[in-house]
Amino acid sequence: QVCAQLCRRPCYCPWVPPRCPRGSPLVLDGCGCCKICARRLGEPCDFLHVCDQSQGLVCDYSAVPTGTGATCNFEDGEEGCEVNGRVYRDGEVFQPSCKLQCRCLDGGFTCIPLCQEDVRLPTPDCPYPRRVEVPGKCCPEWICEARDQHLLRDTGAASLPLLYPCQEWGTEWSACSATCGMGFSTRVSNQNRYCRLETQRRLCVARPCPALPAASPPVS
After folding, report:
1. Span of 43-52, 179-188, 204-213 with lowest mean pLDDT
2. Cβ-contact 17, 25 below 8 angstroms
3. Higher-pLDDT residue of 216, 191
4. Mean pLDDT of 58-75
5. 29-38, pLDDT tens digit by residue?
6. pTM surpassing 0.85?
């Protein structure tokens, strides 16, 4: 009876389907009649306005008695995170851009940069360093700007020997990024071949992660 009240036959749909926000696909409504934008994680839903099942979302009516209404949530209480309109499952590794790699964890996400974060200081062979975006490449690159303002690519600078003494400098290694298991720590240092400030990373393990508890046998 409820379906008969909400669903009209024959159904009439707009001539032009709606334009959905990024990460919300076009799906059929609850009556199987018109195309609508699927509701995303945390958005309100009902019988007609369905959730995005491709992301494992269902309409959660558990909060209806409290007066807040039904919302889209993961089935069976599974946690995830939403980034740029797309939902990722817990533990899933993804790249929101070519410069970042992220991991969904406990409803949030952590990211590490994929591009080097080195800092280049002026040197005799490159008095005016400048970092620019290069067409066709994701990460910016350093170029040497000459005094006459002509831009010269930093191709031969790496092969030149260091013509002045290098005073070594560096920060302490940071704390491990993970409280248990494999993580990484960072520092800024110029202890390299060209005496150039750069962000260095190394793997670290603060402590082993506790083993998951074994499932208890069913009680007859």
Report:
1. 204-213
2. no
3. 191
4. 78
5. 998 889 999 9
6. no
What pLDDT, on the 0 to 100 scale, is given for residue 158?
Answer: 45
Distance CA 196, CA 129 (A): 12
Q: Please, what are the domains in the chain? A: 1-76 (4.10.40), 81-113 (2.10.70), 118-145 (no CATH), 169-208 (2.20.100.10)
What is the C-alpha separation between 77 and 29, in angstroms, rounded?
A: 24
User: Contact at 8 Å (CB) between 94 and 170?
Assistant: no
Indicate the length of the chain as a whole number: 220
Does residue 217 carry a pLDDT above 60? no
